[in-house]
Amino acid sequence: ILNVEQSPQSLHVQEGDSTNFTCSFPSSNFYALHWYRWETAKSPEALFVMTLNGDEKKKGRISATLNTKEGYSYLYIKGSQPEDSATYLCALPGRGKSTFGDGTTLTVKP
Amino acid sequence: DAGVTQSPTHLIKTRGQQVTLRCSPKSGHDTVSWYQQALGQGPQFIFQYYEEEERQRGNFPDRFSGHQFPNYSSELNVNALLLGDSALYLCASSPQGSNQPQHFGDGTRLSIL
Fold it and tell me: Does the beta-carbon distance from A96 to B56 stay under 8 Å?
C-alpha cells in the first residue's frame, strides 16, 4: 500500500503571509507527483506535475519543489490571498490511478 | 469543451437501499476512475474503467460496482448502503495510460440516513 502523507492537516494564515506545506511519500519506485488545488464546491484542479529530483515549478505566487531521494515535496505560497483558501492535495500516479494524501486545508483571513 | 460532469449533485438514501451515480468524462478521455472522499480525508480510489471493463480496483467491497458505456460514460452502483458510505464521490477522467493529472467532476454528495 502506497502511503502519501501531508502536513499540516490545516493552516490558518493572515492575508500577506507566506506559507508552505509538505507532501511525503516512499522514495522507491517514484514516477511522478501531482499537486491539486481543491476549492470548496468545486472540483480538484491540477497545479503542478513534478517528475525529476530537484524539480521546481512555479505558477504566480505558488511554487513547488521535489526531492525524490528523501521522498518529499514542498508547496509554497508567497503573500497568501483569501482566494488561495482551498485544500491542497498531493497525489502519486501509477498505472492510471492516483494515490492521494489527505490534503492540507489552507484558510487565509483578510 | 465540456469537462467531467457528474449527476446527481446531491443524494439522500437510507440504509439498505441501492444507489447509482453517473459520470461523463471530459471530451477525448476514455478512462474513468471513481474515488470516495470522506470528511477530512483525501480521495480514496474505488476502481477504474477502460474499454467498458474494470481495469483496477481499490480496497472496496463488492457492494461497489460499476459500468462503462461505449460513449465512455460511467456509472457507480452501491448496493446495501451503510451509514459509512456517506461521502463525496468523485469521478475523474484521463486518456488511457496517461499519468498526467486527472480531470475531476464536482462530485456527488451521498448522505445515508
Answer: yes
The tens digit of pLDDT for each residue in A7-38 reads: 999 999 999 999 999 999 998 888 899 999 99
Q: What residue type is B92 in one-letter code?
A: A
Cis peptide upstream of residue A8 (ω within 30 degrees of 0): yes
| A positions 75-94 inside 8 Å of B (CB) | 89, 91, 93-94
Closest residue to A102, CB basis, from B42, B55, B56: B42
Measured between CA atoms, the residue of chain A closest to residue B90 is A43
Return the beta strands (E) in chain A as ranges: 5-7, 10-14, 19-24, 33-38, 45-50, 56-59, 62-67, 72-77, 86-94, 97-100, 104-109
8 Å CB contact between A104 and A6: yes
pLDDT digits (tens, 9 = 90+) for A62-91: 999 999 999 999 999 999 999 999 999 999
* Residue A4, phi then psi, degrees to nearest 5: -110, 120
Distance from CA of B18 to the nearest CA of A (A): 25
The three three-digit cell numbers of residue A89, written as one number? 492535495
A24 touching chain B per CB within 8 A: no
